[in-house]
Amino acid sequence: MTELSMTELSPQLLLYIATAACLFAIGVYGFIVGPQTLRRILALNIISAGIFMLMVVLAYRGLANGQARASPDPVLHALILTGLVVAVSATAFALALLGRLKQTQASPEHQP
Amino acid sequence: MSPFWQQYLPLAIILSSLLPGLIIFTLKETQVKLRISLNLLGVSIKLVLVLLMWQAVKAGQQFYFSLPFLPGADLVLQGDALSLLFVVLSSVLWLATTIYAIGYLEHSPLRSRFFGYFSLCVSATVGLALAGNLVTFLLFYELLTLATFPLVVHRGTAESLAAGRKYLAYTLSGGVILMLGVALLHSLVQSPLFTPGGYVAAVLSGNEGLLMLAFALMITGLGVKAALLPLHGWLPQAMVAPAPVSALLHAVAVVKAGAFGIIRLVYDVFGVESMYALQLAQPLMLLAAATILYGSWRALAQQDIKRRLAYSTISQVSYITLGVAMLGPLAAVGGLVHLVHQGVMKITLFFCAGNFAETLGIHKIRELNGVGRRMPITAMAFTLGALGMIGVPPTAGFISKWYLGLGAAEVEQPWLILVFALSGLMNAAYFLPVIYRMWFLPQSGPWPAEQRLSNRFETHWMLLFPVIFTAILLVLMGVFAGTELSPLSWAQLIVEREFRHD
Amino acid sequence: MMVLLLVLPLLGALLMLLWPKVAPLLTLLTAAVCSLVALQLVSRVSEQGSLQILLAGWPSGLAISLEANSLSSLLILLTTVLQLLVALYAVATYRRDKLGAGFWPLSSLLQLGLTALWLSRDLFNLYVCLELLGIAAVALVSLSGDKAIKPALNYLLLSLFGSLCYLLGVAMLYGAYGVLDISALALQWQANLLSSAALVLMTLGLMLKAALWPLHAWLPAAHAAAPAPVSALLSALVVKGPLFILCLLWLQLAATTQAQAMAPLFSFCGLAALLLGGIAALRTPLAKNMVAYSTVAQLGYATLALGLLLQFNQPLFAAALWLFVLAHALAKAACFLAIGEMTATLGGKRLNTLKGASQTMPLAMFAFAVAGGSLIGLPPSGGFLAKWALLQGLWLQGDQLLYLLAIVVVTLLSAAYVFRVVALAFDRAKPVKPDFAPHIVPQWLALLPALAVWAMTLYSEPLLRLLKQEGL
Prior knowledge:
The complex is a heterotrimer.
Chain A: H1 11-33, H2 37-64, H3 74-106
Helix pairs in contact in A: 1-2, 2-3
Chain B: H1 3-26, H2 32-58, E1 63-70, E2 73-79, H3 81-104, H4 111-130, H5 134-152, H6 158-189, H7 208-226, H8 234-237, H9 243-251, H10 254-278, H11 281-301, H12 305-325, H13 329-360, H14 371-374, H15 376-390, H16 396-410, H17 414-440, H18 461-479, H19 487-500
Antiparallel strand pairs in B: 1-2
Helix pairs in contact in B: 1-2, 1-4, 2-3, 3-4, 3-9, 3-13, 3-18, 4-5, 5-6, 5-10, 6-7, 7-10, 9-13, 10-12, 11-12, 11-17, 12-13, 13-15, 13-16, 13-18, 13-19, 15-17, 15-18, 16-17, 16-18
Chain C: H1 2-18, H2 23-48, E1 51-54, E2 65-68, H3 70-92, H4 94-97, H5 103-119, H6 123-141, H7 146-177, H8 182-188, H9 193-210, H10 218-225, H11 228-238, H12 240-253, H13 256-283, H14 287-312, H15 315-346, H16 357-360, H17 362-376, H18 382-397, H19 401-425, H20 441-455, H21 460-470
Antiparallel strand pairs in C: 1-2
Helix pairs in contact in C: 1-2, 1-5, 2-3, 2-5, 3-5, 3-11, 3-15, 3-20, 5-6, 6-7, 6-11, 7-9, 7-10, 8-12, 9-12, 10-11, 10-14, 11-15, 13-14, 13-19, 14-15, 15-17, 15-18, 15-20, 15-21, 17-19, 17-20
């Protein structure tokens, strides 16, 4: 397979890619700056949304160029699904931990 | 003797102290009898095995045992004439020190730990003596550091812990630098067996700079244990260890390991010719001469008996290095024989110092006034050891200094004779007043902390007998230097074999 | 055989959830059987060369492919054996330490994640393994109870962030080349801006997860907060996973120009980790933090070796890299178990607790000292082998005096923090209660890996040969 550089992508796809990049950047900014843990968890989710969006766009790349492929790339779709499962479970776990952290900090025997 | 024996005898010699040591670790504090018998059993087995090997090596046999280790450097144990010199010295003195330590530490806590490490220490020393190549030597050199550290800090006081830390800082740094040098040399020529005449001559051309660097690194690494001049700082502090440990460190294990390593490095790795070609002998000689004078000079000012002995060690061990660095056969005989003589003399002196401290609580030199009447045998032994150190005939010390002087004349370095003379004068200046105080000055007050350790003798028999043994030994070595059994003849045999190759 | 290694821990973990009562037994059983299988795998790979299978009979490219070369099989053996050992330790101290019931299935999942990671050669599978590993590790840290929640959460967030960086890099590479398999990717690899950017992103993510300096800040808190057996697993194995992927990327994918450009950075990070991690270990007053900082420092050796390998392409550095990984895993497991055992028995978290430990708990202290000897690199330990390979490589390369000097300094630094503990142990002990009776079995379990790391020298020649030719 020959290398597909960015210039071969249609303007529409480029727009999506730019959006994905923005999402990623916002997420990274939020993760590094955000003082609250909940915000950082959400920032992580925004980052993953950006990455999944990039992957979705890449899956449609062949179609937009009118090349031989008749359907979007199934491998990427499979990857996104797996990634989503991982992201959801990780977020749930992080939220659960955060909940426990709040509980221990609120409990009376905890000395600040 | 069968080849089987030849292969496993070196290993058996190491195991004869290693195994009892490991068993002793597991013993309870109260199992005194079992511990003592294990110790003595190990010592006797070792002595018998060493005797066997000695006979065989004298007849010209070689012992060789190897395990695969690094590529190009197997783990090799080899019994040749030079290693035998050190093995015999450490085994015989181990016997004396073990008995002494049993008496010295009677009723003190943590004896299982002490004797366990004590045995490990001797195993490492013997392994170092039998090491057949540089990598094996390095291995035992590091193990020796590890085994002696618990002995130095044995008392667990703040002072001994501080000394232990300093000891570790010096010796571990030395070990790392030695490792660097060994690795450098290994990258140039691998690590073949120690051979008389050395093995670096083959790669000499084109690698002069790297070889000199390797030599400098290894001498630095070995110099820490041999207490060469700027690296001697740990030795006086390590005095806080119990007396048998000090005796062992000074006479057999640590400083001797460094000196022995220098001998190996000069004769069996680089070889006389390469030493000449690289012009390495002169700086080593200067360093050793400076250490001799410095050690003696500092010893003059010490008021603590053990500290004075420590500085004396710094000076005396450098005689060995100097003898080796002169690169002449006569000087080599002097250096090698001093390895043994200094060991026996210094162990006697440390035993005596320990006896004074244990029996009468004497630590300072001024408290020694009149001790000759209270403890005549110990004082006599101390006198003999001190006279030997000065080099008065017919003690052992005279023999080695005589050969060193002859060697200096032989290699035409007359200034060295001046160094010997000067150091001899200083030796006399710091030992003779002690002897004078012991015999000719009256007791100046009650002893600091007198204990009646025995009804029959002046002190506990286990403290006294080792002293008598080593004192007699050092006189015999001097008087019978001409006979076949003496260390002198053995040193001549080694030198003959080392210099015969060319 | 490879499938068995993956299915067994997974099945074990599921069964443990169903019958929590027999969970310890199941963990031991799984780990023991897996160790045997791994041993067989090692011998088969060393005889027949690397093995490759495609899962479930799908064609190549679609199926999940697994590949076991000699390095992977060695790492699997290490994983399973340490898992067995730690499980034994956990069983032995179960009553006293009140380890949560979650330990058993989670540690099995951890083993699964690691085994899958060593076997995968596909960027996305590696991502899934990373995530499995990260989540299992965080869950294990949080077992310690309330005080561990905060470091665990921090660890989780950073670990997720690292994985996402890695994932973005994977997406970019797939976008450019359309393949995920590393060997297929290497065939079409071109050194351009896109591939460099992807590599840098993935490297950042992996360095964060592997706690390589300067992205190590989360490690000491997390490893110190975890229960002793968990810390042992984390320090010995978990941080090595991302490191393994990092090596795969740079050694198999990256073009020579990219590798050359990155090499000095890796070497610098390695040296900085060694130096600063060592100093931190020397200064911390807490026992477990000391061991954790030592992990940061020791990972510096691996980073340094990787940097040098990329720079000079000298096979000795590859051997040094993997020997460090193997030796450190064994030594660090021993350190954590020994320190954990001593602090638990003597009661207290500070290093001062260990005062006089050579009298009160000689066996555990001995284990720590023996393992510490390998961390310093004293002969004839595994750490010495690795350092020897590194030194040989540097001397053969010529004119690398700066590195050599740095190695001397950091060796002394590691000696300083190890002997700081040992010297404390030789101090006078506080008098103990008459009923003071330390458990013997856990102490022996701490000693075993320490002895194993010294026994590595017995196999030094085959190890060096294997790891040198492997080079990944």
